[in-house]
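Acetate--CoA ligase (Pedobacter gandavensis), 630 aa
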Amino acid sequence: MQINSIEEYQETYKLSVDQPEQFWAGIADNFLWRKKWDKVLSWNFSEPNIKWFEGAKLNITENCLDRHLAENGDKPAIIWEPNDPTKDSITLSYKILHEQVCRFANVLKKNGVKKGDRVCIYMPMVPELAVAVLACARIGAVHSVVFGGFSAKSIADRINDAECKVVITADGAFRGNKQIQLKEVIDDALIGCPTVERVIVLTHTRTPVSMLKGRDIWWEDEIKLVDTNCPAEEMDAEDLLFILYTSGSTGKPKGVVHTIGGYMVYAGYTFSNVFHYQKDEVFFCTADIGWITGHSYIVYGPLSQGATTLMFEGIPTYPDASRMWQVVEKHKVNILYTAPTAIRSLMSFGLAPLNGIDMSSLRVLGSVGEPINEEAWHWFDENIGKGECPIVDTWWQTETGGIMISPIAFVTPTKPSFATLPLPGIQPILVDEKGVEIEGNGVNGNLCIKFPWPGMLRTTYGDHERCKLTYFSTYENLYFTGDGCLRDEDGYYRITGRVDDVINVSGHRIGTAEVENAINMHAGVVESAVVGFPHEVKGQGIYAFVIFPNIHDDADLTRKDILQTVTRVIGAIAKPDKILFVTGLPKTRSGKIMRRILRKIAEGDISNLGDISTLLDPTVVEEIIEKSKK
Ligand code: 6R9
């Protein structure tokens, strides 16, 4: 299923558009099915109702584990590199990983988890996280992984939305020189989560934790009570595999739902092709499994292809700025898939951290999560790839399940900051505000997709209407991505960023409304408006304009207090970089905040604020500008 030349790409692309069902059936044939499908695809984007490989039966863990055992049982499936470089790394062969997954799946069963039940996973980046994810899939439970940086309240909201029965966590997590008390956060979260019956706790940091009788049990104790024999549950292709929450332009995060068959085919196909993965190579994706990139390209994509996937617990700058490169050297990484924010942050340390490090094993480099600026692209290319490794700038989303627009390594000629061309099966179109297609090249528009692909979301958990409204109602019969996009003279795509009220901070999506809600919960705050602004390392930073009439004495302390509240409500990742206290916000006569103006001010571009005559009170703009200069 690998494409090896640009001609082959063009032929494959044509087939995938002319005969999508035939094309995807051919790709799906490379996977293990207990029973093949009756129908490849049925769909409409109006409800939406999307079904791939209907009637097929499978278990994704048989694709990720069992099918590799005969020939590759001893091959490393997961290599784990700990936060602390003086500690040993761990390698799990396919055989061992299979055993651990089966064993832990039996633990879940013993604790009452059944097919279809939802399980929340809040864990550090340790091999047991992958084991927990796969164990859920083994028995047909639906996992909902929550990133370790979210607050108790965010976790509680997610647990309640999905009505999770079990939580899997650890005592704590190491992140650089910090420790995160995961179990404590879970304890706080569970005060308001009536559906949770069990909490399974892995020992990792050995920090003291409270264990509630009748609810909390230790991972290490439980696995001793079960054996490693756990036949995989037979699942329908359209059964739920997982829920992953993501921010949108409205207040509450949505539970994006992916189903088993289509997601598996899409994650596996895109992994194999985009990175041109070769047998025995080591693939290193630096994302956290708490995000979609980790789901698709640490766990499911690589394992479905029998690849060796490297899991890194730490951060690129701990104990120093050479750490990521040392990990590449130590494990002879062949493919490195990381984020522009990491590149920019490491770039700022200059070339010294690269001294004496042998990264000649590298063959392919990848970027994901946000637009990569040309400077970072060239730095990555010259200093890490030595001009010899193709860079695949992969555009995709939580909702798309896998990479959508991207070069194929060694096939597609790259161009800095361009995601280049759609993968086979992906039909992008650009539309104007009214939804009219913008044809031809050298044009800008809102990026939509006009035909289904197997990895696409099926619904938003518990609220199908929301899925319809968010993605399928802006433009009729199109999936709307929320991104703006340029198609240049060569027909190459460059993603220009979100066109909705979502800020992309270090590759993480944060809804402005979510941050505003959190700020507004702070005592004394009357109102707030949040926008993004260009940030050297993070890509975008968060700028908050806050009305707080009675700051008694210390405005700086009040700022810090507000940051505390945001950390409590959402998590540290949503903390504003700047807070400006103002007495009014620019509003239209109908009461809508004009973010366009605030965005300009946050960017420091006040020369051209556009038409402000429709404002209720244009003088507030002057006040904000004056204050922003201080
Ligand atoms: C995979 C992932 C999705 C949003 C997406 C877009 C931005 C992702 C990008 C990119 C430019 C790239 N984005 N990859 N922008 N170039 N290569 O990141 O999923 O967390 O859901 O974010 O990220 O704005 O809409 P997710």
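Residues 246, 291-293, 367-371, 393-398, 419, 481-483, 495, 498, 504, 507, 509 surround 6R9 (CB under 6 Å). The two ends are 58 Å apart (CA to CA). ok done for today
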